[in-house]
Amino acid sequence: MLEQNTISAILQTWLDYIQLEELTNAEVDAGSTDDDPHIWDKDINLLGNHLFLTESLFKELKQEYKDLKEQNKSDDFKIAVAFPQIYQIKDRLRKFRPLFTLDISIIFAGNYQKSGWDLTKFLFQPVLPNLMDLYGLSEDEAENLVIREGLLVFLETTFNHPYKDLQDFLNLIDLPPRPLRSKASPYLLRFDYAPYSYNLKKDLQKICSQPQWDWATPSHPAYEYLFGVPKPPSHEVFFLGAFPTNPPTPSQALALKHALLNPITAVMGPPGNGKTSTSLHKIAQQIVKRAYKLITSGLDESNLTLVTSTNNRAVNNVEERLAADISTERFYLSGGSKNLIDKQVLPKLQAAINWLEQADFDEQDWYFTKNQLLTLANELTEQKKQYDFERQQQQQDEQLLNRLSEEIEELETAISDFSYSSNREEVPNYTSFPANAYEQILPYVEKAIASLPPAESSSIRSAQNVLGRLWNWLRSLYSSLTQSSERHILKRLYKQIEVPIAATLATPFPFQMPLTRESLLSAREMIVFQLNRQRESTQAQLDREESTQQQNSLTTQRDYLLRRVEQLQSRLANYATEDFYDLFYIQFHAQQQQLFTLSWQYLQLEALKRKEEVLTSLKTYMGVLIQDWDARRALAKNWRTIYRDLSLVFPVLISTLHSVRNLIPYPDTGCLDQVIFDEAAMSPQHQAFPVLVRTSSAFIVGDPWQLEPVIPFSQESLKQYAGESFLKRGLTDADYDRYSPTSHCTAYHRAAGASGEQGDIGMGILLKEHYRCVPPIIKYSDRICHYGIDIKTPDKPSALGANLIAYHVQGKFDSQSNVAEIEAIEAIIDHLLKLGYCVNSPNNDSAIGVISPYRHQANALNKKLHSTWDDFSNNSIGTIHTFQGGEKSVIILSTRQSLETDSLWFINRRPNLLNVAVSRAKELFILVGDLERLKEGGYTRMLVEHIEEYGEIRELPQSFPQDTRKRSKASLSRSPKPRISKPS
User: Fold this and answer.
1) If pLDDT is split at 50, 70 and 90, which confidence band does 308 have?
2) Where is this region: Disordered (predicted)?
3) What is the pLDDT of residues 573-586, one digit of tens each?
């Protein structure tokens, strides 16, 4: 429940943001009919600070509010006041350009006030694009507008003039000249229908009102987008199908593998690194996946793919590649706006219906294509199975080899230990020792020792008296009579051991017959010692023999294992040294392409086979697009079947994000099989969410180091939004950083699982191989963004020789533009044209592009260069933002910086602007500006230094205007900053 509440709060903050966008809509259509006006410019007055409406107008709007309230749609009632009236005529309609708006919707919930309403009590929002276009507000000034202290302070600080009240401001403000029309009067405007956010708002409102959120579970792209942590890519993943273009690069293949296993894949695509090619391969795989599953299982599911972006150029790139490589009028529907639906989508649908009605189903062709496809797919799958089997065998062999090596090492150690034991000090050899003889002698010796009479004491021997001599004679007599004297005992011993003694004499161990008491005792000790030594020797010999046997056994085991190791090594040497998963998409690219072609052919034949069912679905879908309500009800009831059949004929839809709802009206979970969302780092995160609810998988491509979303609010407006929409709903500052459309966390960051902290770009899969710019140019992008890309483009000099050139132009300002730079660029282009470059090329070969970070400078360049060359391509001059996703052979960057009061912060706060600017050039990048001034910035200094290292700093040629030639820093002059109180 807590998670559901968090999701609900996040969705509401996004709806709040859309309301802010609507409130700051730079161009408000007056409405084409009186029945549905968007502007009320009569019966409205401003006196002092008070707004006055006629009672009839108030009642008219109050009734509308009541009607919506009864339908529980009071939030859809949005009325604001703005002044002065500034508008222009386009397509026979008045387009109003408010400078700021005040939301006064709440007054129509109350009663009419004859005294009017004090406008200083209402919250207001500046409309930055109009303040910048009409009154020369710079990008830096726009971000730092003062709004917290109320409307009057905002007007005084913005227009550099004190006003006693709002009426005073209205009387004193300078109104823009024609072709704009102006009137110093207030007006009311409806701000709930802005075209760029209308569909997004309806989608989010519909999602919020759904009784249950089937998508709010782990593993669904929408849920993972909000809360998930991306899983790392897996290597051993096999895919089928490739688009008819170059094979995927290793990093592209890694992204495609990740997308097969995960609901959402974030791909980081630096400039020129093959984002479009990766998306095309992803489309091809989805075609093959459906056809193969249908053939092998009989199950058919929609493979409807949406290719989308907020950037028109991004979706156009995909469409151009499809148109060039798919030789059929079917396959994709492109265009979500009403105009494109009428001009492109409906005619293609009708042509497909005509084809189905007129073409006949060829069952033989169907079987033939089916069998070809199945055979080819099985061949590729068998390659994988064979590799997996061999790889498994190889892994088992490697494991066995490691185990055998360990066993051999253990055996070697054991054998070495035996060798060490045999080399230790040996016991003397007793093999010829007469053990039996000594064992026979020993008991007799011990018995003789036991029989020895006591030894005479020294006192008795030395006795000299008669008694002593008498005692000794008696003892001697007794010993003689009993034969128990030492002599008798030794004599008797000799007779007893004479035979065993004889047995010892011929050996190295002869026994010497003892002749005295002392030698008898020594003989016993010698016999015992020798017998012990003999036993030890015998045991040692037995031990040696056993050790030798064991050593021989271990040696035999070792030799056997060595032979097995040799066999394993020989087998391992025959295994493939290349990793199948590193190369299959390259080695079998031709087969992968053929598989895609066969799959597409098969699905078209399948459409013919199920002709009646598919025709019904296509006609229903056409009815949906032309706003037929019966068709819309049929879609709401049976959308799975309709989208499944539609995708048999048109598996790909191409539309900008703002128009998706026109092609896929309802945010039903699963109505899309996959979404490919390009340039996601240019999109606020809330814009991607409705398509993620619709899809089963998402492939989100972007570059956090290229251009970010344009947030048309001042810093104080953003603080106000954070407090009102996040903190008051119980969300945190961390939630704001993570989920706010106004934070640095874009749709790409959200998909890549970024934390919301500054500098965290998440865990997207980096496309590493670069194929657009020559090395000196793209090295600058790599230098400031630290991509670590692998540059595949060869070195190629430009027509001017160097690939990087900088011209110092001191600067001369007029109406917020640097005229000196424009004059220099005009001369540079004239020089380039003489060298073979052009200002208009359908494929951008040799084409020149001119860009600036600043809108005023870009507009001035556009006006001047088109006046000189009327065939200058319209998409070749503009701001850096207009060139995102584009490329030219030559790019000229006009920095406009010159005045000391100019802030370099706008260009240098992050590397994104200059990364995009430089990487648009394929072979020649030219920097025009005050180089000394640019060196005071961070990334601009690095750019000048990079050009000094890899290119050239050049003097403007003599044929260029004299006042634009390089001068020393000491001679640089500065002009005063223009006031914005005068309209441009």
Assistant:
1) very high
2) 955-984
3) 888 888 999 999 99
